[in-house]
């Protein structure tokens, strides 16, 4: 479910080969369950800012009439502007309470694709608030439609790069959970450096999680699952909730694309880690 456009190296606007785009990945007919956490690109030095990881890759997509109406009518209420400022600001947490109109556990989702799983999880967990970060406009419009159809009040959206949102808008130790479902696998070995789940990014992510908060990743690429397990397992502030891969938590729905992939014999791997206390 996660993902978004913008890779300086990509100029064809073709969606990368990922679970949520079987046409771009003929060897794998699954489509990332309703969302594919699209990842990204780097630029030249090992740091988060130089070899710059982004949470998306550019892709074209047509906004339907219904999605455009939802963007126009519901966007002002549910889509928040990217507002960079010092994330350590004392009033930052209070401002999120004001955005949602309450104080509740807060879960960040990076890349929600077309939003079906996001909406289903939010409906299943009305006691939690969900902040979805996605740059693909048709996906934002699709989730807004679902919010309206299901009368959901516990979702807000930021249409911007998730790395910058984490750096500039999320206070340290403020998140109760993070979802990264089916990010772009960048399946060619020479592109693995563009994958989202990298040590520098994980360090940033964990710094925004409360002690005891969970990080839930899912992928249908075994090689990426192995990399995720290695990277997350090497982060000293995280502990695995399972021996290696976790059973799929009941709150994460199985989409039609995932179900089709499973019928074809493709695997899906869930990883659930928690931030250590103290």
Automatic annotation (TrEMBL):
Gene3D superfamilies: Vaccinia Virus protein VP39. Its EC number is 2.1.1.33. S-adenosyl-L-methionine binds at residues 109, 134, 161, 184. InterPro entries: SAM-dependent_MTases_sf (IPR029063), tRNA_(Gua-N-7)_MeTrfase_Trmb (IPR003358), tRNA_methyltr_TrmB_bact (IPR055361). One of its GO terms (cellular component) is tRNA methyltransferase complex. It holds the Pfam family Methyltransf_4. Residues 1-53 are annotated as: Disordered. HAMAP family: tRNA_methyltr_TrmB (MF_01057). This is tRNA (guanine-N(7)-)-methyltransferase.
């Amino acid at each position: 479910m996660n993902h978004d456009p913008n890779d300086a190296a990509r100029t064809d606007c073709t969606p990368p080969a990922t679970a949520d785009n079987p046409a771009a990945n003929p060897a794998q007919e699954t489509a990332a369950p309703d969302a594919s956490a699209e990842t990204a690109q780097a630029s030249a030095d090992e740091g988060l800012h130089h070899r710059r990881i982004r949470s998306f890759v550019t892709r074209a997509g047509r906004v339907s009439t219904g999605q455009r109406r939802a963007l126009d009518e519901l966007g002002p209420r549910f889509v928040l502007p990217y507002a960079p400022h010092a994330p350590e600001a004392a009033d930052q947490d209070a401002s999120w309470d004001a955005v949602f109109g309450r104080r509740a556990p807060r879960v960040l989702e990076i890349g929600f694709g077309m939003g079906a799983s996001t909406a289903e999880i939010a409906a299943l967990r009305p006691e939690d608030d969900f902040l979805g970060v996605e740059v693909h406009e048709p996906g934002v419009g699709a989730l807004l439609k679902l919010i309206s159809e299901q009368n959901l009040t516990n979702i807000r959206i930021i249409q911007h790069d998730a790395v910058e949102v984490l750096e500039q808008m999320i206070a340290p130790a403020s998140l109760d959970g993070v979802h990264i479902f089916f990010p772009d696998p960048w399946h060619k070995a020479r592109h693995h450096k563009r994958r989202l789940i990298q040590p520098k990014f994980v360090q940033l992510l964990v710094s925004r999680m409360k002690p005891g908060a969970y990080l839930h990743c899912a992928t249908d690429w075994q090689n990426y699952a192995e990399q995720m397990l290695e990277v997350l397992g090497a982060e000293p502030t995280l502990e695995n909730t399972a021996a290696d891969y976790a059973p799929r938590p009941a709150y994460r729905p199985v989409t039609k694309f995932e179900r089709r992939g499973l019928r074809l014999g493709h695997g899906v791997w869930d990883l659930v880690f928690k931030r250590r206390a103290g």
